[in-house]
Design a protein that fits this description.
The structure holds 2 protein chains of 2 kinds. By secondary structure, chain A is of the alpha+beta class. Helix content of chain A is 34%, strand content 19%. Chain A has a 5-stranded antiparallel β-sheet. Chain B is mostly helical. In chain B, strands 1-2 form a two-stranded antiparallel sheet. The longest helix of chain B is centred in the last third of the chain and has 31 residues. The two termini of chain B are 29 Å apart. The chains are: A alpha+beta, B mainly alpha. Chains A and B meet through helix 1 of A and helix 4 of B.
Amino acid sequence: MPDYLRMGFILMVVGMVATAILAATESATREPIAEAKRQETLRMLRMVLPPGFDNEPVNDTVTLADKKLNRKEKPVIFYRARKGTDASGVAYIVTAPDGYSGDIEIMMSVLPTGMVHLVQIVAQNETPGLGDKILPTKTDWLRAFVGKNRENTRWRVKKDGGDFDQFAGATITPRAVVHAVKRGLDFFVEKKELIFQPATVEKKP
Amino acid sequence: MSDNKTSQLITDGLWYNNGIFVQMLGMCPTLAVTTSAENGLGMGLATTFVLLGANVVVSLIRNFIPSAVRIPGYIIVIAAFVTIVDLSMNAYLHDLHKVLGIFIPLIVVNCIILGRAEAFASKNGVFASAIDGIFTGLGFTLALVVLGSVRELLGSGSLFGQALLGSDFHPSLVFVLPPGAFIALGFILVGVRWINAKRDNEAA
C-alpha cells in the first residue's frame, strides 16, 4: 500500500473508533442531560410561581411568540400554575436585548390580576460587581418588582423618572431589565386570554 | 521504570515544569475562567481528566501512527476526550457545566495537552504517560486554583463562595475583570520565580 494511502487509512481508523466511542457516550448521557435541564426548569418554576398550585406547570404550557417577549420573536413557553381549575399564575422568560453585555434572560411570574409575583434572572453576562448586582445572590434589587402592576408603577429607573433604583456606575443593566419586564407585563395584559387558554396539546418539555 | 524517574515526573508536573507557572501554556482557559477558586478547580480537574485520557491513548497508539499524521491523530483523541467530559459534565454536574460550559470545548486547543502528547506520551510507555498526565494536570489545577483564589479574594472578598473578609473590606473589582487576571498572574509568577531562585541559591 502506498504511504499516503496507509496514513489516510490509519487516520480513518482513529476517527472511526473515536466516533463510535462518542456515539456511545452521547446516547448514554442524552437522558440524564434532558433530566438535568428539566429539573433546572422545575427548580426555577418552584422559586418563581406563587406557592399552592396543584398542577404540573412543566406539563401545562402554551407557547407564544411576540416582539414584546424577545426581539427575535422566538417562541416562549408559558408555564401555567393552577389551583383546581383556577389559574393562579404564569411564568415565562423574557429577554432583554439591551443589557451591557449580551442578552439578559429573565423569568417572570405574573398573577391573573396582572400583578408581578416574582422576577428571577435566568442568564446574564453583565459586568461582575457592577451590572451583576441585579442577581439575587448579590443584592435584593429584584424584590422591587414584587407586587408591581401597570397602574401602580412608573416602569423606568429613577434616573429616567421611574420607580426602580439603578446602581452607581451601572444604569444600563437595571434599565434593560425594567424595560424587559414591563414589555413582558404588557404582553400578559394584552394576551391574557391566550395565555390562560386551556392546553390543547399536552406537551412534554 | 525506576521510582526516581516517577518522582521526578511528579515534581516536574506539579512544580518545576508546571504548565502555567513555567511553560506558560494554556493561557486562554487560565485567564478566562479563574474569576473564582471554584471555577479554577472545575476547569483544572476537567483538564486533568482529558490529559490523563489523551496521554494514555496517545502512548498506546504511538507505534501505530505514522509520524507524518501524528498531530491530526492526537487532535482526534484529545477532541474525543473533551467531548466525553463535556457530555458527562452536562449530565451529572449540570451546575458546574453551566459555569464552565463555553470553556470546556476550548480544552481541545489547550496547548498543554497537545504539548504533553507530543513531547512525552508519544515517546514513553503507558504508565509513565499516565503519571505525567495526572501530575501535569494537577499542576495546572494548582495554578488555576491559586490564581482563582487570589482573584476571588481580592475581587469579591470571598473564597470558594464563602465570604471571608468582613463588610469593611472593599473588593477591588478589577481582579474579577480580565485585566485582573493578567495582573494577578504576573505577581504570582514573580512569587514562583522568587521561590525557585531562593532554592537554587541555597542548593548552590
